[in-house]
Amino acid sequence: MDMDEILNHLGEERLDYKNAVSPPVFQTSNFMFTSIADLRHKLVHEEHEHVYTRGNNPTVEILRKKVAALEKTEVALVTSSGAAAIAISILQFVKAGDHILCVQKPYTWTYQLIHSILSKFGVTYDFVEMTTPDDVEKYRKPSTKLLYLESPNSLTFEIQDLKSLAQWAKKHNIITIIDNSYCSPVFQNPATMGIDIVVHSATKYINGHSDVVGGIICGSRKHISSMFKSPFMSLGCNISPHDAWLMIRGMRTLPLRISQSDNTAMEVIAFLEGHHRIKRIIHPFHPSHPQNELAKKQMKGCGGLFTIELNAHKKEEVEKFINTLQRFLIAVSWGGYESLVFPVLALHDRPDMDDPELPWTMVRFYIGLESSNYLIEDLQKALDAMEDVAL
Question: If you average pLDDT over residues 171-195, what whole number do you get?
Answer without folding.
Answer: 98
